[in-house]
Design brief:
Layout (H helix, E strand, L loop, with lengths): L10 E7 L2 E4 L10 E5 L8 E5 L7 E4 L2 E5 L8 E6 L2 E5 L7 E12 L9 E6 L6 E6 L5 E8 L3 E10 L6 E2 L4 E10 L5 E6 L7 E6 L7 H31 L1
Parallel strand pairs: 1-7, 2-8, 9-17
Antiparallel strand pairs: 1-3, 4-6, 5-8, 9-12, 10-11, 10-13, 13-15, 14-17, 15-16
Length: 247
């Protein structure tokens, strides 16, 4: 009699965390899926998984995770292989734009300022007709110009007031030169890395010059002279009519 041999071999189990990708958007890329392949777990046995992999910036990293065997699941019964997936964030084809806000003030001497009376623009220095943004003053003289930069480079811009046609208003011909340097980072996001905006005190001063009226004495004399001449003219007319009747 020869006794046979009973042998139970380990189950081959492969645990693989997910592989995933996306274009950079400033938020973390995560994927908590874990796939079990090979022989798999025996009935009623298994594990729980904690996936901690994360990728925010452009680049790639392992989708890290750990596992813990459930109660009644013995590690000696398994040959477990861990495979980490890849999390990949790619650079966008079109850079994410950046914005610059310019605030300014309108002052008017000679009378009270009204809302929306004056218009202000920002344009490219090299092109007088290239208006990027415009705004009018509020009742306190405040205005704001917004610039959206869509690509990197050095920008030379002019801030100025459009000359209107309000009567008796002397417009400010002053203008401000704004220089802005924009760069794109590794994630495809544009940033303003240099600007002289903080050095500019954007204020436009207009003056209302009311029309000149004759002085009081001169006006009274003119009225007196006009009235006197009118009376003399009327008297001559009456005399002439009387002479006609006398004939």
């Amino acid at each position: 009699i020869v006794d046979g041999t009973l042998e139970i071999t380990k189950r081959q189990v492969t645990l693989t965390s997910a592989t995933d990708s996306k274009v950079y958007d400033g938020t973390a890329l995560t994927n908590d899926t874990v796939t079990v392949t090979g022989d798999g777990w025996a009935d009623g046995e298994g594990a729980t998984y904690e996936v901690t992999g994360s990728q925010t910036d452009v680049g790639a990293s392992d989708n890290e995770f750990t596992y813990a065997l459930n109660d009644g699941t013995l590690e000696d019964n398994y040959d477990i292989t861990v495979v980490k997936g890849q999390l990949t964030v790619t650079k966008p084809l079109i850079p994410t734009p950046t914005e610059l806000q310019i605030t300014g003030l309108k002052k008017l001497a000679g009378r009270t300022l009204k809302e929306g009376e004056f218009t202000f623009i920002v344009r490219n220095e090299a092109d007088p007709d290239s208006m990027i943004d415009s705004d009018t003053n509020d009742e306190h003289g405040n205005f704001q110009l917004d610039i959206l930069f869509k690509k990197e480079g050095t920008y030379k811009l002019v801030i100025e007031e459009l000359k209107g046609s309000l009567p008796n208003v002397i417009y400010d011909s002053n203008s401000y030169l704004l220089t802005v340097e924009v760069e794109e980072d590794n994630n495809g996001v544009l940033h303003i890395v240099d600007s002289n905006l903080a050095d500019l005190d954007v204020i436009f001063n207009n003056t209302y010059d009311p029309p000149t009226l004759p002085e009081t004495g001169e006006r009274d004399f003119n009225l007196f002279l006009y009235g006197g001449l009118s009376l003399i003219g009327s008297g001559l007319l009456l005399v002439r009519k009387k002479r006609k009747f006398a004939r």
